[in-house]
Amino acid sequence: MEKHKPYGPYEKYFKRPLDLLCGLAAVIVFSWLYAILAILGAIFMRGNPFFTQSRPGKDEKIFKLIKFRTMDNRRDSQGNLLPDEVRLNSYGRFLRKTSLDELPEAFNIIKGDMSVIGPRPLLVQYLALYSEEQRHRHDVRPGLSGYAQVNGRNSITWTRRFELDCEYVKKITFLGDLKIIGQTVGKAFIKQEGISSETCDTMEDFDGTN
Fold it and tell me: How far is residue 175 from each of residues 15, 42, 95, 178, 181, measured CA to CA in Å?
């Protein structure tokens, strides 16, 4: 699989301006919700309501992803963070169930780190584990939602997720993105499917084989 080239006029000329417009609109329209969630997050997370983490973006360029924090910082007697399922409190579960934790990523979209639709940005340490084909998921900007998210999200295997990511990258169209947006609303906010894997409250770590 060769490095991705824009499929058509939409991807080449219109996708980024539309992303910027959507990001700005989200921040303006939901400014009241950002304020409420920031206050609630500071209370329930006992401190900073935001979570930032380095993630690889387009061409594997590292950027800082921003989300609302869903796990607190509780540690054991040795100072190590407790397991995810312990730190994922009821408020955090609510944010994940409704996907409200993703709202601050609108700022990443405005900045140009992300797109509304694209492969989800994963952990930096996974870069060394990808196959040559899987690396092509980074030929485009990562997305707030994506083809894999509406076809299983955390309930599918990593292998299948990457297959879907690469399938999306090969042919990016306006109607395709519009369909994914519609499916995202249906699955994340109405059906609330695929939030967890079968064995984990979030998603198992990728080890290069699963």
Answer: 12, 39, 29, 5, 10
Nearest Cα neighbor of 37 from 102, 114, 109, 107 is 102
Instruction: State the Cα angle at 158 between 152 and 159, rounded to 5°.
Output: 105
Q: C-alpha dihedral over 158, 161, 167, 173, to 10 degrees?
A: -150
Question: With contact defined as beta carbons under 8 Å apart, do 84 and 69 qualify?
Answer: no
Which residue type occupies 168? Y
Single pTM value for the model: 0.88
Contacts of 161 by beta carbon, 8 Å cutoff, 6+ apart: 148, 152
Residue 120: beta bridge partners? none
* pLDDT tens digit sequence for 114-166: 999 999 999 999 999 999 999 999 999 999 999 999 998 778 899 999 999 99
Burial degree of 156 (CB within 10 A; 0-12, 13-18, 19+): middle
